[in-house]
Design brief:
The complex is a heterodimer of chains A (299) and B (402). With 299 residues, chain A is α/β, with parallel strands linked by helices. Chain A contains ten helices and 14 strands. Chain B is 39% helix and 23% strand. In chain B, the strands form four sheets. In chain B, strands 5, 6, 7, 8, 9 and 10 form a six-stranded antiparallel β-sheet that branches. Chain B has a four-stranded antiparallel β-sheet with strand order 1-4-2-3, sandwiched between helices. Classes of the chains: A alpha/beta (299), B alpha+beta (402).
C-alpha cells in the first residue's frame, strides 16, 4: 500500500497552463496518475496533453470525483486558489508554489483544518507512491522517476524536494523501496509536518520504516521527537541532518525559507540531540541510511 | 529582513504605541544637539545597527545637555560595531523607570498560529525568562482567519495577575502590536523593554521587527513609508561585493536560480544546488577538510548564461584554485545546460575545464547529454552511483594534489 495517493486517486492541477505546470502534467500522466482536469481562469475550453482545462474548480467537482489538487499558480494568487479548492470540497491539496508570505500560508493551513482537508507544502515537489502515481513534480520525468523511486516498505519525508529524490535513489539502489515519498516543503510553516504524516504511515501495513531529511530552523524535528515518544511509534526512523555548518552562523539564511538559526532550538546540534533521545537514528551521510534502516529492522 | 530600531519605532508609532519623547534619528552631531534641545532634558543616544551588543561596544550613551548630546553622537557615529557602521543615532528623552515589561508577537511553529507573549520581567532576553522564570511568561495564540479582538490581549496580560489601569494600558499596546503583526505579515514584533515610568506612563524603550523576504512585495507601501529600500538584503552581516555581484547575476536572468551566494575565505569554489543539496554538500566539503570559497544555490533549471556568469564570478575571486560542480539527483534542472554553462564560464575565464573543474556530480534529467559534453572537454564527472559525500571527497583530494 501507500499513503495519500494510489493509482485510483483523481486530481486536478490549478494553474495547469503555466510552463512548469504543463511539464508536470506530462510527467504525472506518463507515470500513470489520473488527472481529471485543470484550472486556469480565462482559459476554459483548452486542453493540456488531453486534460480538459476549466475556468473554476467547481466546474470539475460538479461533474466528477476529485480527490486532490496540485496548486501551481503564482504566489500572489495561491491563497485564492487554495480557498477555491477547499470550498469545492477537495481534501488533499499539494501546494508547489514557493515564496508565499507566511501569514497567507498560516491562513490556508488554518482554513484546511476547519474544512477537514490536508495540505502538503507549500514550496514542495509533491507526493510519489512508486508504481502507483505521482502528484507533483517529484522525481521529474516519468522515466527519471522510475529510476530513482522503487516500490517497497520505507516511508520517506523530506523538507527538500531535491533531496527526496536523492535519498530515494540511494534507498532504491540498496534494494530498499519506498511505500510513499512526500516532499513536505521548505517553508517555516507547512501544511503537513513529519508528525502530521506519521499516523498515516503507522496505519499503512506495508510501511516498516521511516527515513526523513532534516534541516536547521523551525520546530518540526522536535515535534517529531515528541510524537515518537508520546505515541510509542512502531516505526523505526532514520534521519539525515543537513546544514550542520549553519550552527556557527546564526542569523544567516541558507537553503530554504525555513532554514535559519534564530534560537538555540533551531541548531542541528539541538535537533540531533532531541531526536536521538527519542530513539531516532541520525545519519551524517546519505549512503549510511540504507544500512541503518536494515539494522533498525534487524535485517 | 530586520528593521532598525528607529524603523520599528516608526511602525509602532503608526499604531499608537507610546514612544519616548523625541525619538528621531540624527546623522550628525548638530542634528543630535537639535533633537536634544527640542526634548529639553536628559536624553539617551543609541547607535542604529542590526546587531546585538551595542551597549557593550559603547553604542548607547547618555547626555544631559545638547552639547553633551552632540559630543556623544560624534563618538557613536564613528563606531564600527561587529562590522556594522551605525546608520544614524537615535535620540530620545530619558526618564526614570519603575518597571520593565516584555510584549512580543511571533509565530508558533508547533501550533502554526501567531502567538502573543507577555512578561512582567522585561529588559532581558525572553528565552532566558522562559527558561528560568516560566511563571513570569504568558502566551496567547490568535487566529489568522477570524478577526482579532481586544479581549485576546486582555486575557494575555490578565493571566499574569495584572489588573486596573496597568491592564488596560498594557493590553492596548499588546493588541496594537498584534494588529501591526497581522496587517504587515511580520515574523516578529517585539517591545523589550516596555517601561512603566515613575510618572505612570508606559513607553516602548526598544523594539525589534522582522519582515520576511517573501512579504516584501505585498508590503511595498509600508517599506516606502518607512524609507526602507525594498531590495536591501539585511542578513546577519552586510553583504560583500562578491555577494552583491552574485545577487545581480541571479536578478539579471529570470530563468532558474543561481542565488544566495555567500562568500567564504577558502580556495575551492562551489557551484552547488539546490536548497537542501547545497546544505548537504557544504557540510560534506567541510567534513573532508576542504575550504569552500563560497556557498551558493543553483536550481530550477538555470540558463547557460546564468551558470556561465556565476562560474566566472567565482573564478574571479582571488585564491580560488578549482571549482566543484555538484547537486543532488535533479528532476527539473537539466544536467547538460549546467555542464555547458560551467564549461563556457571556465573557458571565458581563460582556463581549461579539465584542470579547473575538480569534479562534476549532477545526475538526473538529461544526464547522458551532459556527460557527453563533459567527456568532450575531459572533465571528471560522476553519476548517481557516486554519493554526494564521496564526490565532495574527490574534489577535496584534487585540491590537495594541486
Amino acid at each position: 500500500m501507500s499513503i495519500l495517493i494510489t493509482r485510483e486517486t483523481t486530481f486536478i492541477i490549478q494553474g495547469i497552463t503555466g510552463r512548469e505546470a504543463v511539464n508536470m502534467t506530462r510527467e504525472c500522466l506518463d507515470y500513470g496518475s489520473k488527472i481529471v482536469g485543470g484550472v486556469t481562469p480565462g482559459r476554459g475550453g483548452r486542453e493540456v496533453y488531453g486534460v480538459p482545462v476549466y475556468d473554476t474548480v467547481r466546474q470539475i467537482t460538479s461533474r466528477t470525483r476529485v480527490d486532490g489538487s496540485v496548486v501551481a499558480v503564482p504566489p500572489a494568487f495561491t491563497r485564492d486558489a487554495v480557498m477555491e479548492a477547499l470550498d469545492a470540497g477537495i481534501k488533499l491539496i499539494v501546494i508547489v508554489t514557493e515564496r508565499i508570505p507566511r501569514y497567507e500560508v498560516a491562513q490556508m493551513v488554518e482554513m484546511a483544518r476547519v474544512r477537514g482537508a490536508r495540505i502538503i507544502g507549500p514550496n514542495c515537489l509533491g507526493i510519489l507512491s512508486p508504481d502507483e502515481a505521482k502528484m507533483g513534480g517529484l522525481g521529474g520525468r516519468a522515466e527519471d522517476a522510475r529510476k530513482a523511486f522503487k516500490k517497497g516498505f520505507v516511508g520517506v519525508m523530506s523538507r527538500s524536494g531535491g533531496m527526496t529524490t536523492e535519498m530515494c535513489n540511494t534507498l532504491s539502489a540498496a534494494g530498499l523501496g519506498q511505500s510513499t515519498a512526500v516532499s513536505i516543503g521548505g517553508d517555516p510553516i507547512i501544511g503537513s509536518t513529519y508528525a502530521d504524516l506519521m499516523p498515516l504511515f503507522e496505519a499503512d501495513p506495508e510501511t516498516k520504516a521511516i527515513v526523513i531529511y532534516c534541516e536547521p530552523g523551525g520546530r518540526m524535528e522536535a515535534e517529531l521527537a515528541q510524537y515518537v515518544v508520546e505515541k510509542k511509534s512502531r516505526l523505526p526512523i532514520v534521519a539525515f541532518m543537513a546544514g550542520r555548518f549553519m550552527d556557527e552562523m546564526p542569523g544567516m539564511r541558507f537553503g530554504h525559507a525555513g532554514t535559519i538559526v534564530e534560537g538555540k532550538a533551531d541548531t542541528t546540534t539541538e535537533k540531533i540531540a532531541r531526536m536521538e533521545a527519542a530513539g531516532i537514528t541520525v545519519a551524517e551521510r546519505i549512503e549510511d541510511i540504507p544500512g541503518m534502516v536494515r539494522q533498525r529492522l534487524g535485517l | 529582513m530586520r528593521f532598525y530600531e528607529f524603523e520599528a519605532k516608526k511602525l509602532f508609532g503608526k499604531y499608537g504605541i507610546p514612544l519616548p519623547a523625541g525619538s528621531r534619528v540624527a546623522h550628525s552631531p548638530n542634528e543630535a544637539a537639535a533633537i536634544a534641545e527640542e526634548i529639553g532634558g536628559p536624553v539617551v543616544l543609541k547607535a542604529q545597527v542590526l546587531t546585538g551588543g551595542r551597549m557593550k561596544a559603547g553604542g548607547v550613551l547618555f547626555a544631559e545637555t545638547p552639547s553633551e548630546a552632540a559630543h556623544a553622537a560624534e563618538k557613536i557615529l564613528g563606531l564600527v560595531i561587529k562590522g556594522h557602521t551605525p546608520r544614524g543615532v537615535l535620540v530620545e528623552a530619558r526618564a526614570p523607570v519603575e518597571q520593565e515589561y516584555y510584549i512580543g508577537v511571533t509565530w508558533d511553529g508547533f501550533a502554526r498560529l501567531p502567538v502573543m507573549i507577555f512578561s512582567d520581567m522585561g529588559g532581558i532576553d525572553i528565552e532566558e525568562v522562559a527558561e528560568k522564570h516560566p511563571e513570569h511568561i504568558a502566551k496567547r495564540h490568535f487566529s489568522t482567519i477570524h478577526p482579532f479582538s481586544d479581549y485576546m490581549a486582555k486575557e494575555l496580560v490578565a493571566s499574569l495577575g495584572v489588573s486596573g489601569t496597568h491592564l488596560l494600558r498594557l493590553s492596548h499596546i499588546a493588541a496594537q502590536l498584534a494588529r501591526a503583526f497581522r496587517n504587515h505579515g511580520l515574523t516578529l514584533a517585539e517591545i523589550n523593554p516596555l517601561a512603566r515610568l515613575e510618572d505612570g506612563r508606559f513607553v516602548c524603550l526598544d523594539g525589534h521587527v522582522d519582515l520576511e523576504d517573501d512579504a516584501r512585495e505585498s508590503q511595498r507601501a509600508l517599506l516606502e513609508e518607512l524609507g526602507i529600500d525594498p531590495n536591501e538584503k539585511r542578513q546577519a552581516r552586510p553583504p560583500t561585493e562578491f555577494e552583491v555581484r552574485g545577487s545581480q547575476i541571479d536578478a539579471a536572468d529570470p530563468r532558474g536560480v543561481a542565488g544566495n551566494v555567500v562568500e567564504f575565505d577558502g580556495d575551492l569554489g562551489l557551484i552547488i544546488g539546490a536548497g537542501g543539496g547545497s546544505l548537504t554538500l557544504f557540510d560534506a566539503i567541510r567534513k573532508h577538510g576542504g575550504r569552500p570559497a563560497n556557498y551558493c544555490e543553483i536550481g530550477g533549471n538555470p540558463s547557460v548564461a546564468k551558470t556561465c556568469a556565476l562560474t566566472k564570478l567565482i573564478l574571479s575571486k582571488p585564491g580560488v584554485k578549482k571549482i566543484a560542480v555538484m547537486m543532488n539527483v535533479v528532476s527539473n534542472t537539466r544536467v547538460d545546460l549546467v555542464a555547458r554553462g560551467v564549461i563556457k564560464g571556465v573557458i571565458e575565464s581563460g582556463c581549461k575545464p579539465s584542470e579547473k573543474i575538480a569534479i562534476f556530480r549532477i545526475p538526473g534529467s538529461w544526464e547522458s547529454e551532459g556527460f557527453k559534453i563533459l567527456e568532450d572537454y575531459g572533465v571528471e564527472y560522476c553519476d548517481r552511483t557516486v554519493s554526494m559525500y564521496e564526490a565532495a571527497g574527490r574534489a577535496v583530494a584534487k585540491m590537495r594534489e594541486g
